[in-house]
Amino acid sequence: MRIVTLAAPDDFDGWRTAARGLMSGSVPPEAVVWQVGGEATDLFAATPPETSAPDSTIPLTFKVPRAFLDLARDAILHSDPERFAMLYTLLARLRQTPALIEDHADPLIRRLEGLAKQVRRDIHKMRAFLRFREVPDEGAAEGGGPRYAAWFEPEHHIVRANAAFFVNRFGNMRWSILTPEVSLHWSGTALQEGPGATKAEAPDGDPIEEVWKTYYASIFNPARVKVGAMLKEMPRKYWKNMPETALVPELLATAQRRESGMIEKAKAAPGGNSEIAWEALREEALSCTRCHLYKHSTQTVFGEGPLSANIMFVGEQPGDQEDLAGHPFVGPAGQLFDRALAEAGIDRAQTYVTNAVKHFKFEPRGKRRIHAKPDAGEIEACRWWIEQEQALLRPKVTVALGATAARSLLGKVVTISRERGRALQLPGGGEAWITVHPSYLLRLADEAARASEYSRFVDDLRLASEAAA
Question: Percent of the chain beyond pLDDT 90?
């Protein structure tokens, strides 16, 4: 049995040297125990008698794939105690089958790639979320300039691997990075390593942070915040070390109140000037990134119509022509909708027309863009805009054109055939009436069925109009 003792938990060079000697001596993976500084990394291995160290001067008799070395450099920084043994096991297998490194379905390779991915993510987190704070230092009085310190709690052994980034990025500063495992100190010309620190040794803040917090609060836009995505990318464990994130819970909690206050203030202005609030809302929607659909569509298609309208129509989403024109219901379905409104005795110019989802979702087929139904996440992401439009207009009646619109308004899946033709109470006040989307009528192949459904659609619009009178 061989015991290999590495100098540090991130000692890639030491592991590689030892692995070379072990492999040259054909030592099987099960005959090796790896440890760091005298502490075994295999928690379940019995402590064997130590034998001579492997001879690392013997050259390997096979070529190690470059992809393996890249994988090992990252995976070895992980906190998994089995990482050294797993890498040596994979190396032994590659000796027999070099092409195995390309088999990403292999359980061992998948596990090591998972470790490497977590390490790279932790490296990114350190670069993104570490915050320097100015600390008192005698060197400043001697012309050395101010000194800064930062506290960070990595999940893996990434601090040394990240040192070059901070030296290059903040080379003109004097700084220290304190972590529980190891500390780094940059003098402006040389990097030194020190023992781990505690949170109590880290600075709490400096005057610059108050300025930064004020700025951050002033630009905070709750409409652009996707809390789930934010927590995935920036878990709460990092919040306590970042001055701006200390503000996020309160800003999120008060977001709706602040937006509602803006709307009410605008409505209370002389002449009931809700146009100010609507323009601000529309401007925000034009840069909405609450879901991924903005990446593919041409533009946001916001609602249109008088803000004094008693009736609001909500469709599913803009279509191809709406996406290009930037206006709702101007394509084939919109033309049929206009005809049905006229037959129902409704002047479209006196109504407000919008969509549950503000961006066009489609599937490309050659040069054509074919409509794709929004999913639950996309509908939910856009509900904020519908709620604000309703809060501004306060229409007496809101007509849901199709199941997507009904789900957006009511917050649940709705069966049109069961709810059609009767008034439903909306959570924010007013009535909701549900009918089909005009595009449904266009898809009916049977002429008689299309004529019958169109007549019923006109009746639905007439009933809603009467309720709004």
Answer: 60
| Tokens coding 171 | 């080379």
Q: Which two tokens stand for residue 307?
A: 């803000």
* 64 neighbors 17 (Cβ within 8 angstroms): no
- The CA angle 325-327-332, to the nearest 5 degrees, is 80
Q: Give the Cα separation of 372 and 317 in Å (integer).
A: 10
User: Do the beta carbons of residue 116 and residue 80 sit within 8 Å?
Assistant: no
Calpha distance 255→240 (Å, rounded): 21
Please give the Cα distance from 108 to 87 (Å, whole number).
9
* pLDDT tens digits, 351-400: 999 999 999 999 999 889 999 999 999 999 999 899 989 988 999 999 99
Closest CA to 356 of 324, 312, 296: 312
Q: Taking the CA of residue 274 as centre, how many other CA atoms within 13 Å lie in the half-sphere pointing to its CB? A: 19
Distance CA 343, CA 258 (A): 42
Find all residues with CB under 8 Å of 399, minimum gap 6, and list them.
Answer: 311, 312, 313, 314, 432, 433, 434, 435, 460, 461, 464
- Band of the pLDDT at 133, cuts 50, 70, 90? confident
Give burial (CB, 10 Å; 0-12/13-18/19+) of 203: middle
* Predicted TM-score (pTM) above 0.70: no
401: helix, strand or coil: strand
Quote the tokens at residue 232: 């995935």
Comparing 3-12, 205-214, 454-463, the range with the smallest average pLDDT is 205-214
Coil, strand or helix at 304: strand
Q: Is the pLDDT of residue 243 over 70?
A: no
Pairing of strands 311-315, 352-355: parallel
First to last CA, the chain: 90
Sheet hosting strand 39-40, strand order edge to edge: 2-6, 32-36, 39-40
Alpha-carbon distances, residue 109 vs 6, 70, 89 (angstroms): 23, 13, 10
